[in-house]
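Worked problem 6 (solution included).
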Amino acid sequence: MCRLALNARISETVHEPPRVAKSGIGHLSVGEISQVERLISLAGNLVAVIGLMMCLVGGVARLLGNFHLFGYSAMTIFIAGTGLMVMACLAKVELLLLRERE
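Solution. The predicted structure is:
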């Protein structure tokens, strides 16, 4: 009887660590992960469209014989668009990795 009372007191004083959701990342809860995924997806799509437009503008300007556009070289604008599309690809890869962790 005394042993049961002692075990009951010990279990009352021991604090359990906070439980983390299995699909949570760090301190984020399950609902917040979908918001993060949507934000990364939206940012990736937006950067991809901007990059594609920059590549098209720089490429068409160069094909028409214009070496400079908006004060920049047409090839600089084309390369900046390519960089933005690479950034969009990296955002999509990060999105795939976030989904894989769940």
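Discussion: The beta strands are 68-69, 72-73.
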